[in-house]
Specification:
By secondary structure, this protein is α+β, with helices and mostly antiparallel strands. It folds into three domains: about 170 residues, Nucleotidyltransferase, domain 5; about 150 residues, no CATH class; about 100 residues, no CATH class. The strands form three sheets. Strands 10, 11, 12, 13, 14, 15, 16, 17 and 18 form a nine-stranded antiparallel β-sheet that branches. Strands 1, 2, 3, 4, 5, 6 and 7 form a seven-stranded mixed β-sheet that branches. A hairpin with a 2-residue loop joins β8 and β9. The longest helix is centred in the middle third of the chain and has 22 residues. It is globular. This is DUF4218 domain-containing protein.
């Protein structure tokens, strides 16, 4: 495959690996999410991989379907996708027979960033006048860049795409149109990892620090303050987070997970003291909207988030200027439609695929013959040791015995310092000890055993619970609180723990 090589591993093998390790009843329908993106494998040359990845929904494990290697991306996207399209259509028609059960296979969605999307759909790139994949907006040329200022342009549909209704958007006919039961517009959603985290959040920080002087709002002293606060928070970040905060002046090196953490967690706490009211309100509007869209929300809440995003874009243009209304800023107007179709943002984000690609690169021991290395490696590992995430959700594990206390009346040994739930870990360390029990926010200080032999947690609840902000809505509505004043030690049954909090230090303005 010019100018490189392609190896196709197949979709069915990944499905069979999944089914063989599934302890649950085999479903009659499997939906596969596809991830496609390019990744450089060396800093010294242009060599790159373009893997086609799969993920059986709603499970998180990713498997390899095919992979291209070359000095540049594939010259012809249709050639690159040909085997994949044949594969998925065969599964569409015939399904997979496993243990005398025929399982139907459909594409759930295809996840990729804007450049990869334009590549595989044969449409204009994100710097083009007609580049929005969701509507027919025509960009304006302002200050040597293409900007998108309109709000209510006609939406694209699968039918309009197939009929080339807006010829300026297309550069060819994509082989993806040959996939059966696939909507090429709605089933390639906007990915918030690239659009919001890497796109919008990084753009905001860039404007605050290195933007034109008239809109630059973080002075050198404020940058130092923000960086100091971020570094102070490093010891408060729970185990579930992949990274801890870095100084804000290093924002250009921040990974998507760091930008997400800044938007959803650390930013609203730190920036309250450093940004003027208009810019802070604009940031909080984005923060609230994305928090809502990251959660399982009702249609009413999603529509509220959509209104917030429209308001954010309007105010963004007023604050920073129309010349910064980029492809990503415009994309915010459409992302709530994707949430209505697929569910919370993480249901259709590139984060699982990004993590897999890091592992893919780490499997390369040398620069020569990468496809052979990948093929051999994944034959050995059974395609990344796919499992079906079969976990007993109700099972709770207590770990790490100790005898340090504290204990209260009715509590005895054995004592433990850690509890492992299905989706999170609670421990007695300050970064992982804050949780919601019944109606209280509690800091856990010990895990012990009751008179009846049941596990209990010993801790202190916060006496004062307030909202952190009240614009554009109360933070309390999103489960974000400002707390203070711990009460005396109390005891709760372990099973009363509902969920875990991120607990960050806060100094009032």
């Amino acid at each position: 495959m010019f100018p490189g090589q392609y190896c196709h591993f197949g979709i069915e093998y990944g499905i069979r690996q999944f089914l063989s390790k599934s302890k649950n009843t085999v479903s009659s329908l499997i939906q596969i999410q596809i991830g496609i993106d390019g990744v450089p494998i060396s800093r010294s040359n242009s060599n790159q991989l373009w893997p086609i990845l799969g993920r059986i929904m709603p499970h998180e494990k990713v498997f390899l379907i095919g992979c291209y290697f070359g000095k540049s991306k594939p010259a012809n996207a249709n050639n690159f996708l040909e085997q994949f399209v044949k594969d998925i259509n065969n599964l569409n028609n015939n399904g997979v027979t496993y243990n005398q059960t025929t399982v139907s296979v459909l594409i759930h969605s295809i996840i990729c960033d804007a450049p990869a999307k334009s590549f595989i759909t044969l449409t204009k790139g994100h710097t083009g006048y007609f580049s929005c994949s969701k509507c027919t907006i025509e960009g304006d040329f302002i200050a040597n860049r293409i900007c998108f200022l309109e709000f209510n342009c006609p939406k694209r549909t699968d039918e309009s795409f197939r009929n080339l209704i807006q010829e300026e958007y297309h550069v060819g006919r994509s082989i993806l149109l040959n996939i059966q039961n696939f909507d090429i517009v709605s089933q390639i959603p906007l990915d918030y990892m690239h659009l919001i985290c890497i796109g919008v959040v990084k753009k905001l920080i860039s404007l605050w620090i290195t933007g034109p002087l008239k809109i630059r709002c973080l002075s050198s002293s404020k940058i130092k303050n923000v960086s100091k606060s971020l570094l102070n928070m490093r010891h408060f970040i729970p185990k579930e987070f992949a990274r801890r905060p870095r100084e804000i002046q290093d924002f250009s090196q921040w990974k998507a997970t760091e930008l997400r953490q800044f938007l959803l967690y650390t930013g609203p706490v730190i920036l309250k003291k450093e940004l003027n009211s208009n810019i802070l309100s604009n940031f909080l509007t984005l923060h609230v909207a994305v928090r809502i869209l990251c959660q399982k929300s009702t249609v009413e809440y999603i529509e509220y988030a959509d209104k917030l995003l429209k308001h954010f874009v309007e105010c963004f243009i007023k604050i920073y200027g129309p010349e910064f209304a980029s492809h990503n800023i415009h994309g915010l107007l459409h992302i709530s439609d994707c949430v209505k179709q697929f569910g919370p943002l993480d249901t259709f984000s590139a984060f699982p695929f990004e993590n897999f690609m890091k592992e893919l690169k780490s499997n390369l021991r040398k620069s020569e013959k990468p496809l052979e290395q990948i093929s051999n490696r994944y034959a050995e590992k059974g395609f990344c040791e796919i499992n079906s995430d079969n976990v007993n959700v109700s099972r709770i594990n207590v770990k790490t015995r100790h005898q340090k206390g504290p204990l209260v009346s009715g509590c005895f040994n054995p004592q433990f310092s850690k509890i492992e739930f299905h989706h999170f870990i609670i421990s007695v360390t300050s970064s992982d000890n804050c949780c919601f029990i019944e109606k209280d926010i509690v800091c856990i200080e010990n895990i012990a055993t009751s008179n009846e032999g049941n596990y209990v947690v010993i801790g202190r609840k916060f006496k004062t619970v307030e909202e952190l902000y009240n614009y554009p809505c109360s933070s309390v509505d999103l489960g974000i609180f400002k707390v203070s004043q711990l009460c005396d030690l109390q005891v709760w049954p372990l099973h009363k723990i509902k969920y875990k909090f991120v607990k960050l230090p806060y100094i009032s303005v």
